[in-house]
Design brief:
The protein has 367 residues and is of the alpha/beta class. The protein has 11 helices and 13 strands. The protein is 39% helix and 20% strand. The strands form 4 sheets. It has a 7-stranded mixed sheet, sandwiched between helices. Helix 1 packs across helix 8, helix 1 packs across helix 9 and helix 6 packs antiparallel against helix 7. The two termini are 37 Å apart.
């Protein structure tokens, strides 16, 4: 697997980060969608009637237990942060010739009304035979239409998949073709179905997984982890950072992906059932089958590429009231440009909307 690094609510014990599930679901769809899927599920978030997030204070994520305000973090101008940006006449998103982008989200609640605590952009280029995965920390500070500035994972929480897609498009200038949403329920079951996965733990990770998430009996070193232990591994953040949590999620993702590729037909059938019960997408069945074939053809001759859309090279962290810990990009337009650089796209110019958001973000953060 190629690794191309890009340049630039309070998280309770019930918080669940499930990046792993997302590509597993896609791998399953790639293999057996034509045999099992018979329909496209409606969006259960919007089908619940009244918005489950109505009345929620969007930005009041608060601090985690024992967390204090970082004295070196910027003071956010709350008045500016809460104001909506004026609508631009040219509100279009840049089109990346040859590439199609998909947003993959993992939700921390079984009713599809939680935060999207795992997010990646999957980009497919049939002509160049490339599939890339661009990861981004859930705490990235972004502009959310109708809500003002806040954490990226709050976009889905307050407006479902449509608002999450709009937020990605406006902040990173990425034209999202379709989305896939997965809830937490399937992760431990999928890991156990494939017989566990092999991961290498540090002593600090093993100790924290036991103390914080009741994954007892583990020690540093390479070993096979079960579903609950993989979940604990992917939730670890406090011993280092949200950036490293993204790395752990991706390590686990690829470990599961490697096991899924070699599963028997019977196991695939069982996995599809688990997957389909815990996901939804706005992609029609017909398009899903074409999508599955395209990705399968590419992965038969190419390796997955990992791009870090936001990482330590183009952002910094701080604990800021009332948001808690947030990830602040140095320059939003540079993030959008570096994404194209990793894709090999030349002559890219950030859209007017991205430039507008970048300028307001600097004002909000006092930069």
């Amino acid at each position: 697997m190629a690794d191309r690094a890009g340049r630039g609510r309070k998280t309770s014990k019930k918080s669940r980060t499930i990046l792993i599930v997302l590509l597993v679901i896609l791998a399953v769809l790639i293999a057996l969608a034509a045999f099992v899927l018979t329909r496209t599920k409606p969006d259960p978030y919007t089908g619940q009637g009244e918005n489950p997030s109505a009345g929620v204070d969007f930005n009041n994520d608060g601090l985690e237990e024992g967390e204090t305000i970082d004295p070196e973090a910027p003071t956010v101008n709350e008045d500016l942060a809460g104001e909506n940006l004026e609508t631009l006449e040219d509100h279009s998103v840049s089109k990346d010739e040859g590439w199609t982008h998909y947003l993959l989200m993992g939700i921390d609640g079984t009713s599809y009304s939680g935060h999207s605590d795992a997010m990646i952009v999957m980009s497919v280029n049939k002509d160049e035979q490339r599939v890339t995965l661009a990861s981004i920390p859930r705490d990235t500070f972004v502009y959310i239409e109708g809500k003002g500035f806040g954490k990226l994972n709050g976009a889905y929480y307050t407006g479902g998949a449509d608002l999450a897609v709009q937020t990605f498009e406006e902040n990173f200038d990425i034209d999202i073709a379709n989305y896939f949403v997965v809830n937490f329920d399937s992760l431990p079951e999928i890991v156990d179905l494939v017989g566990g996965v092999t991961l290498t733990l540090t002593d600090a990770e093993a100790e924290h997984m036991g103390r914080q998430y009741a994954a007892w009996g583990l020690s540093g070193g390479t070993q096979v982890l079960n579903g609950d232990e993989v979940l604990a591994y992917c939730r670890v953040r406090k011993i280092d950072s949200d950036y490293r949590r993204n790395d752990r999620q991706f390590n686990a993702l690829m470990a599961i992906y490697d096991k899924v590729k070699d599963m028997s037909y019977d196991k695939y059938i069982e996995l599809v059932g688990i997957a389909y019960e815990n996901m939804y997408s706005d992609m029609t069945l017909g398009n899903m089958l074409f999508f599955a074939k395209d990705v399968m053809d590419i992965l038969s001759v190419s390796e997955l590429e990992h791009i870090k859309l936001v990482d330590t090279e183009n952002s910094y962290t701080g604990t800021v009231n009332p948001y808690g810990s947030i990830v602040m990009v140095n320059d939003l337009t540079e993030v959008a440009a570096s994404f194209r650089e990793n894709l090999g796209i030349e002559g890219y110019t950030p859209s007017a909307r991205v430039q507008q958001i970048a300028e307001r973000m600097d004002e909000v953060l006092g930069r």
